[in-house]
Amino acid sequence: MSNKFCSLDELVSYRQEYARQKQTVVFANGCFDILHCGHLDYLQGAATLGDILIVAVNSDRSVRRYKGEDRPIIPEDQRVEILEAIRYIDHLLLFDEPDVNHLLLKLKPDIHAKGTDYTVETVPERNTVLSYGGQVAIAGNPRINSTTNVINKILKNFGSRKKRK
Q1: Residue 165 belongs to a domain
Q2: Domain membership of residue 149 as a residue range
């Protein structure tokens, strides 16, 4: 893994330096299982909101709790590796908790960005962000895709076919 992947303690240290430099830190999170254009649009939109983009990625265990035992499709180390290749992401970390409230309270990003499947009022961590003076923002274009839709299309189109070489 590259130097983009950090522990929470490392990110807290980076965050303090970014605050001293008066850089705006944006925090985004998600499973990013079967990365698609909707994910890229969300992350690119989040990156435009500030100077530094931190992305928290659900661990495999967290994805299973959230999405079901048959997920994730792509293991956490590979999901992180794919995200590391995105130039506008500055830092990545894995999280195992059911939500990112703990991470937000430790990092206190200036902006917590969520995708267009939310509104500013429906972001689950909204009260946490507001409690330390942060802002909630919606990033990306209206949702046109989801990993579940991609999986369903694959199953519909290829589920009954024999394995190909």
Answers
A1: no
A2: 8-158
What DSSP state is assigned to residue 145?
Answer: -
Q: What is the pLDDT of residue 162?
A: 52
Give every residue of the chain whose pLDDT is below 50, as ranges: 1, 164-165
Q: Give yes or no for a contact between 54 and 25, defined as CB atoms under 8 angstroms apart.
A: yes
Q: How far is it, in rounded angstroms, from Cα 142 to Cα 116?
A: 5
Task: Quote the CA–CA distance of 39 and 32 in Å, as a whole number.
Answer: 7
* Residue at 1: amino acid letter: M
Residues 6+ apart with CB under 8 A from 27: 54, 55, 56, 100, 103, 104, 107, 109, 111, 112, 113
CATH number, residue 18: 3.40.50.620
Whether 89 maps to a domain, the answer reads: yes
pLDDT of residue 143: 67
The DSSP letter of residue 132 is T
**Residues composing the chain:** 165
H/E segment holding residue 138: strand 135-138
Q: In 10 A of CB 125, how many CB atoms?
A: 20
